[in-house]
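Reply to dn_fold:

You asked what the input looked like. This is it:
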Amino acid sequence: MYSTVSGKSGTWRNWAGNVTARPAREVTPASVEELSAAVRRAAEDGLRVKAVGTGHSFTAAAATDGVLIRPQLLTGIRRIDRDNGTVTVEAGTPLKRLNLALAREGLSLTNMGDIMEQTVSGATSTGTHGTGRDSASIAAQIVGLELVTADGSVLACSEKENPEIFAAARIGIGALGVITAITFSVEPLFLLSAREEPMSFDEVTGSFDELFTENEHFEFYWFPHTGNCNTKRNNRSVGPEKPVGTVRGLYEDEFLSNGVFQAANYVGRAVPATIPSIARISSRALSARTYTDIPYKVFTSPRRVRFTEMEYAVPRAALVETLRELKAMVDRSPLRISFPVEVRTAPADDITLSTASGRDSAYIAVHMFRGTPYQAYFSAAERIFTAHEGRPHWGKVHTRDAEYFAEVYPRFGEFTALRDRLDPERRFGNDYLRRILGD
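and this is what came back:
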């Protein structure tokens, strides 16, 4: 049977430390049958249910005072179908383990985010994405999923089976049930050539359309209090493989990007007046480099400095104007921002509550070092983002509610109607879902 832990003995915290919860009990099912039984028992006891991955969401999407499902025993690849180019994986599998396992099999996802600590179900349910001209979020690569619903039933969902549920549950924010397995479309392992180089803010924004059009994957970071950016272009390559050297990788990706950056943030948090000077130094610390490697070694990078984040998707055509407004706001304000602003893109997709649903999108992510007050900065940024019909990332800090989402998501009512049908008693509800979806 499944194991239970009294809520009196533990408090759940997310990765950033800004969300806590005290569940009545925790359950670690070892099979889909055990998970279904846990949901049915929760209903008998009048408790709500939430599944939690690694806690990388900055919102309370997974918080519960009821039954907390921990999926760490539901891991691993169920099957690989090379003929159809798919892999079915248990929902609790960390992305980093999936990427490694696929690489050993000579396979890869087409696109991925820059962090790979999350579970596959947690990452897809909140809309985790990378950057891409033609390839979209991780959830857009889902071709099938298995879902435990409020009555304990197990549903197989795809374009052919339960298609209306499939359209929504790929990014379901935990509102429709507990995902137990996901089938991804995969392809033969390929090589990416990365070109990283500094550029000025004016140069990047002035030529953004060209940079976007000419590269399969383009992203950049702007350092507040400076006119400096770091850019990254990833494109497919025929080889040869030329990975980052061990010494250079340790120096730039660990020592500078994590070690020195964390120390600088501690200084900035203690003495905010030093931040503009630190930003000017940080923005010039990394030199240009090129390398060629398998996808997950190019797309992903270690993130050991903890932070709080807000990210909004705006129409791609509005990116440059939105970013210039953000820079003007920071320049004229007393704010001191030690973290760079991250900018990425995604093509339109057909997932009901995807931030890129029905429109080509650009993402602007703002961060603050963990433990630093972020409300003033995020509130000012959010006013700019919402003026451009921005859609916040479901797993990152925002203040929007169901009334706002009904305006910016044309299919919002389609999702809430499906939720009413699948979970009329709100077995999978919590305060966060009540705010963003209504009740």
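The mean pLDDT is 92.
Hope that clears it up.
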